[in-house]
Design brief:
mainly alpha; 4 helices; 48% helix; globular
């Protein structure tokens, strides 16, 4: 049984399915209005960052919303990252 609303499902899907889809304006509003969701997304970010499923703008948004002195997320993860296509 899934307890997440469809909006929240799509928000998590964007950072877990490998599409690296940027959140829509509506999804960003849901996130901005829910500290609990922000906390869940920060935890997901900490646990899934190496999966490369995060769009850089989604990463920056969560990083900015949850930044604290004890945060262990890098500030410039996507700053100078080169995109390499293997073919």
């Amino acid at each position: 049984m899934n307890l997440l609303s469809p909006e929240v499902e799509y928000i998590f899907e964007a950072v877990s399915d490998g599409s690296q889809r940027q959140w829509t304006v509506e999804e960003k509003e849901v996130i901005l209005n829910s500290p609990q969701l922000q906390n869940q997304l920060e935890k997901w970010l900490n646990n899934s960052l190496s999966d490369t499923c995060w769009h850089s703008e989604n990463y920056k948004m969560i990083r900015a919303l949850t930044k604290s002195p004890t945060s262990n997320l890098p500030n410039n993860l996507f700053k100078d990252e080169e995109i390499s296509i293997p073919f």
